[in-house]
């Protein structure tokens, strides 16, 4: 929901893709990947198969990196 709110704010606006906007766009992409992998980890059948793998590590880094940036 937050992703669509942020995109809706920029919709038909006068955007200039300078450095801050490129960082914000990168955050949106990272935030989306973190959210999608979180949905996969929330499903018990899928979580059973990907536990103790690099998938969980990747999800953690997507979420933390998106928050830090």
Notes on the protein architecture:
With 69 residues, this protein is mainly alpha-helical. It has a domain at 21-68. The protein is 80% helix and 0% strand. It has four helices and no strands. The protein has helices spanning 2-10, 19-42, 44-50, 54-68. The chain is elongated. The two termini are 20 Å apart. The model has no long low-confidence stretch (mean pLDDT 82).
Structural class given helices, strands, pairing?
Answer: mainly alpha
Q: Can you tell me the overall shape?
A: elongated
Mind summarizing the main beta sheet? none
Radius of gyration: 15 Å
Secondary-structure map with pairings?
Blueprint: H1 2-10, H2 19-42, H3 44-50, H4 54-68
Helix pairs in contact: 2-4
Short précis:
This protein is mainly alpha-helical and 69 residues long. The protein has four helices and no strands. It is 80% helix and 0% strand.
List keywords for this structure.
0% strand, elongated, 69 residues, mainly alpha
């Amino acid at each position: 929901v937050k992703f669509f709110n942020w995109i809706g704010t920029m919709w038909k606006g006068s955007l200039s893709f300078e450095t801050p906007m490129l960082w914000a766009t990168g955050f949106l992409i990272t935030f989306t990947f973190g959210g999608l992998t979180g949905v996969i980890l929330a499903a018990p059948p899928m979580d059973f198969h990907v536990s103790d793998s690099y998938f969980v590590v990747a999800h953690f880094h997507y979420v933390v990196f998106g928050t830090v940036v």
